[in-house]
Amino acid sequence: MINFTVGPVQMDEETRKMGMDQIPYFRTPEFSAIMKENENLLCKFFDAPQDSRVVFMTGSGTASMEGGIMNFFTPADKILVVNGGSFGERFVQLCEIHELNFTEIKLEHGEPLTRDKLETYNNQGYTGMVLQLCETSTGLLYDMNMVGDFCKRNNCFLFVDAVSGFLADKISMKEMHINAAITGSQKALALPPSMSFTVMDAEAQKRCLSNKVKSMYFDYADYLKNGERGQTPFTPAVGTLLQLNEKLRRMEKNGGIAAMNKAAADRAQYFRNKIKNLPFKLFTDPNSTSNCVTALTPTKPGVNAHKIFEIIKDEYGIWICPNGGDMADKVFRVGHIGSITTEEIDKLVQVFEDLTKRNLI
Amino acid sequence: MINFTVGPVQMDEETRKMGMDQIPYFRTPEFSAIMKENENLLCKFFDAPQDSRVVFMTGSGTASMEGGIMNFFTPADKILVVNGGSFGERFVQLCEIHELNFTEIKLEHGEPLTRDKLETYNNQGYTGMVLQLCETSTGLLYDMNMVGDFCKRNNCFLFVDAVSGFLADKISMKEMHINAAITGSQKALALPPSMSFTVMDAEAQKRCLSNKVKSMYFDYADYLKNGERGQTPFTPAVGTLLQLNEKLRRMEKNGGIAAMNKAAADRAQYFRNKIKNLPFKLFTDPNSTSNCVTALTPTKPGVNAHKIFEIIKDEYGIWICPNGGDMADKVFRVGHIGSITTEEIDKLVQVFEDLTKRNLI
């Protein structure tokens, strides 16, 4: 099967080979040294300010979304939550569950957050803002420079879910005034799913250390304390963390974040050029689209998006990525992060062409 | 390195080979079918009553300890918590964090829970009880038939942490009147660390569905609902779940739980016979010891247990398992779950003999 979903994505050969290795005991100085290197390289690739730290969470991206909401905010905060799709909606639900004081900026699926809309919240006493870098359900990429500028002026703590955007799209915590950002192992890092990572500046750490959360598993103060010696409070997905180390070191050697961003942009462009003449409409404005995924709407009347996913899976051995909820019938997505070659993209395009010939799209 | 810790432990060849495979997209009927089989086989191996279910949690064993405490109990419960070591202590902390009404039965390290002690809590209105099957920090195995009998008479909801005990020691939810029990991927199942599993009877499920927990990641009602279609609410460690499936099927073919329990007992006995003449004292009464681990105290004055761990790691390429806290200097452990051969045990015994000759133990 060729995998064009947005996670888990195809892993590199180097990562796969390590999957065969026995997993070492980890309460050792040897593993601590690897974890300290993981922390330093993640901080570097997020362009995080000096003295930033990383919390290594065994859990999905949602675990780190919830952990951040619990550790960075208190009921004294007044939070802006951007909801432009399934993952923005999840932040709304998390703020509700944890009884935080928040305002939802609800956007249509695929609708960018404009400066005009954001400025209506200027000088209203907001102390926090949470949003995705890329809303994975539509591929919408938010204008994070604009958001960061707003947060700086308003002294808002900015928490960014970059789970699927990291490496595919530019993120700089320094330039974008981001206090904390998360990513997951199974997205553009192309590791097995199991871990998510939160990079935190000094302010984010201060909040973790002063907030008392009603949870042991999400007590970031404990993670930060254990992290000082390169450890986690509980047994992490050790194998994934070793694969992370190999991947981060390899990235560092091969041109770092700039090279990763460029490769992702080139691959997205290659795919989007190839499908120009196919009966699909880009769901999201190309000027506001992430490099990680392309959301497409079939233009031919009566064509069901989820059915296309099923046919391609069952008849061609390829996974594209179905949408959920009220987009399920109208939109599907093609992810192009991870170890995807142009030959594989060509193959998918041939499948689309074949479906056109078969009158199925 | 040879790994005699209690997790992550050495994986089987079959499991390791699967570590190289690309990880499939999982929101498919194909993956759902595998998950339903995982659920059925885990229920079978825990000897769970009919209509039992499994919650598949991406996280360490502690995640499922906390998830259980949050989902099974409310402040209306009156809970007995057995604290005989680091992991019993963790249950105490979890009950404190979640502001539950509980009584701690504090035992010395390695001290069994006796019938006399337990009976002092009889007919006192307790509605719940939580404890380990095996307290991994000392290897103490609780008398679960006695505990189950007490819980049945007192109508106590019984929640058992069998993270390290499952497969090594007998557990039968039916016979022992256990309502919910957990295990972890990196213990006797010998998979990569990343997942923990909670097997629940009908009463446990009822509690999950009626309790409203203040968490998205630990909302077991959502896991049970998604589990009906063989899915999890959030991206799980898909690779580990596929390895779990292969392992459970292989166990089923090779004699099931009885064969696993016997192999663990034989291996524990083999190791314990081999070290009879070495300068160690069994930390825990052999009649109350788990088959998963042997806790040892060096008998020669001045010998530091943690130092032995370091020497064996650095000079012989073998990990034994150090203890933490106030046992660190006096006790070390040898785990013998996972893919450990008698040749490897012989090699460790030779190392101990060499250390005796070198006058280090």
Give a summary of the structure in a few sentences.
2 copies of one chain form a homodimer. Chain A has 361 residues and is an alpha/beta fold.
Per-chain topology:
Two copies of one chain form a homodimer.
Chain A: E1 2-3, H1 13-18, H2 29-45, E2 53-58, H3 61-72, E3 78-83, H4 86-97, E4 101-106, H5 115-119, E5 128-132, E6 134-135, E7 140-141, H6 144-154, E8 157-161, E9 180-184, E10 195-200, H7 202-210, H8 220-227, H9 238-253, H10 256-274, E11 280-282, E12 293-298, H11 305-316, E13 318-319, E14 321-322, E15 332-335, H12 342-357
Parallel strand pairs in A: 1-13, 3-4, 3-5, 5-8, 8-9
Antiparallel strand pairs in A: 2-10, 6-7, 9-10, 11-12, 12-15, 14-15
Helix pairs in contact in A: 2-9, 3-4, 9-10, 10-12
Describe the structure.
The structure is a homodimer of 361-residue chains. The first copy, chain A, is an alpha/beta fold. The first copy, chain A, is 40% helix and 17% strand. Chain A has a 7-stranded mixed sheet with strand order 2-10-9-8-5-3-4, with helices on both faces. In chain A, strands 11-12-15-14 form a 4-stranded antiparallel sheet. In chain A, a hairpin with a 4-residue loop joins strand 6 (134-135) and strand 7 (140-141). The longest helix of chain A has 19 residues, at 256-274. Chains A and B meet through helix 1, helix 3, helix 4, helix 9 and strand 14 of A and helix 1, helix 3, helix 4, helix 9 and strand 14 of B.
